[in-house]
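Instructor's aside before we start: the two examples that follow are unrelated to each other. I chose them only because their records fit on one page, so don't look for a connection. First example below.
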Amino acid sequence: MDTTRAILHVDMDAFFASVEQGDDPSLIGKPVIVGGLGRRGVVATCSYEARRFGVRSAMPTAQARQLCPDAVYLTPRMSRYAEVSAQVFAVFGEITPEVEGLSLDEAFLDVSGSRKLFGTPREMALRVKQRILEVTGLRCSVGISHNKWLAKLATELGKPDGCFEIDHGNRERLLDPLPVGRLWTVGKVGQAKLEGAGYRTVGDLRRAELDTLARVIGNQAAHLQALARGEDLRPVVARREERSISAETTFDIDLQALPEVRAWLLKLCERVTERVRRAGLKGRVVTIKLRTPPFHTETRQCTLGIESDATDIIHASAVRLLETWWREQSRPRLRLLGVSASGFDADTAPGDLFAAAADGRKDRVTDTLNQRFGSGTVRRARSLDT
């Protein structure tokens, strides 16, 4: 193992489904599928019991029902998953401050400076697994290596509940037989180009003449060949600032009535601003996302006069954007609606501090009740028509 860098990649196993099974032990051992349950819904994640039937993340829920009709189907509880995620990330912080979160259930940890305190990278990986199990009751997989690309690959090779290491000794043996599509920068188009030129495995790329490879894939040739050799210089970027917080929904039947769309918009704003406040942020930019049939997507955006985490302030701006867009349409119909807050790093401007304080008190009471009794327990009456 490289003595200068030690990287762990941690990925919770079937996170949403595992949280549901942990909260309801009657679900343990059963196929559990979490995602959108409507006609256009997709699977967010599923338990390993469901994966034996061929169910996968991002699969249409309708297809999952055909493959596994007897599964337990659940809508996501994002506030609960965020709560468990905070416990998981607190465990990471016990080992190192150098944590780059990729999602609620996945992160890179640079543990290079933690050896004197906690031992070898493998010992630290096992410690993380044990502590997460103790704190949350959930299992995770950990990949160990000297860079991010190989650490993430090690996690994939060790799943589920794995602790796998890729070092200089086994790197070439593990990489060479992999299909070129496993390289993290190669998409379907690039994979087709490479395979069409005879480069089917990572080993083929590693052994290729650079000039010949460049004629196939262009200026990405040197980068891909470095990955094929197991090289990756990207650092772990700790405390990455959240750029936006969003929520959206796809409707089973296209919406054509403005009051119904307004009700959905309020529900989405409640969801977004609760997450904004939970993260201790305030945003200045409000964006709405609108998709009309068949698949035309637009966004509308505005800037607030003052940074805010208040539901009523962000919702009022989102409504103005929606109503302006609605008036511009000859026959408005929506199949998807979304809203996001961003601009968290903007300088605070003076504003109506008394109104902000009043909104803050109301939102704090709402958040407290929803965190105690479950997301959506307290909602504004205007959103109850959804």
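Example two begins here.
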Amino acid sequence: MALSTEFKVGLFVLITGGIVVGGGIWSVDGVFQGASVYTLSLSVPSADGLYLGTPIKLAGVPIGSVDSTVVQGDRAELVLKIKDEYKLPVNSFAQIRSSGIIGDRYIGIDLGDDARLFKDGDRIELKNEPADFEKITRQVDSITEDLQAITKVMRTMAERDENRENVEATLGNVEALSAELRLMAEQNRHDISAIVDSIRRLSSTLEVFAKDTQGDVGDEMDKLKDATDNLNSTVDDIKSITGKIDRGEGTIGALVNDKATIDLLNDTISNVNDVVEGFSGMHSEVYYTGRYYFGSKPNNDEVFFFGNPLAGSASNTIGIRLKPQEDFWYNFEINDTPLGTVTYTEHFFPESGQVYQEYIREPNYRMTFMMNKRWFNLGLRLGVKESGGGLGASYWLFKDRLEFQADIFDFDLGSYPAVESSGIPNVRVLARFQPIDHVYVEAGMEQVILGAKYGYATGFVGAGFSFNDDDIKLLFATLPLNF
């Protein structure tokens, strides 16, 4: 006996409801039945880069994750969920660390040696607060301004008339001292002659000695000459550089003499810090979803002469999710939907004044780019959905283990066939359940509005998996380095 359409739709709804209820029972509080954990609280100056699920590592091994974040005054209060098998001494400390320059942040544990162990609900202290790059930048700015002030004072002193007079007086004193030394030399000429004679005899002795060591001394003198030449060249370079700096030439000269350049450099450093901070907090995830479609046959055979356009077919989706913030992310997808793409060509007949549109459906890939924003358990998205405009919503339950999705897209030509579905967007609803980390199953309905209009239903079941930055880093770490 043939089953009616109403019976089949009702049966499918019962199956989907069973999956949702089973998922809720399986993932209570986001932890498997029988899992044993305890919690610790941690106060940090800022939770930037930390999110629900941020790993907690001991010696590089994940031992738990961040369970919640709240604001207390001007600091963030974190609740850490630790696996019960890892007992931590009470003098252990927590540190906020990063996996490389642009890697994700995580909470590392410095293990203590106390015999006493943390209990559920205890507080663990933060060992070293993260560096404040803006404070360091302000200190560099202050040092630069001090150097500029010193240079300005030295230039001002050199340009004063009284300072030039002091220099001239100093030169006069040097000339007077030279005259006194000349007079002293004349008065002690005989003593000086005796000294010169002694030096001459000493020189003769040294000459004999020099002949014996002439080869070695010659080599050493050549080396000394080379060193002197290098030193002279270095002094000339230093003179050239200091002259350019004093005249305000080059980057350093501009820094010393032009405050506007210093301000511009400070702005550039600040922008670079913002970019680096943005990348360090970027979180990415790659995922794959496969679906199999089934459904009843439409009532209108003239329009649906091929039958249900999706029943008995399958699709594959590969995507990447980029999350600059925990509550905001981008989705990029490529999908080989069985509907392919629908295009049309317009033909005009001048003789009769008629217009004829020829619709063509051919296998092709569809692209998706959507922006997502989340508020608590509700998320909204907007952008390009399967090569057409689209928008959608999600609602999460049980620590994000269970997700309900609803999307409406392809407003132009509609789902299929193009002539009858033009102006009727494709509506897709589904429930997705994640029994274990990185693996999920789903069930839903496709072409809801079009199916309701022509008396047929199309459903699908699917499964998929995902992996994030830490999984990618672990994969690259295990690859051989020698090829």
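The domain at 37-126 is CATH 2.30.30 (SH3 type barrels.).
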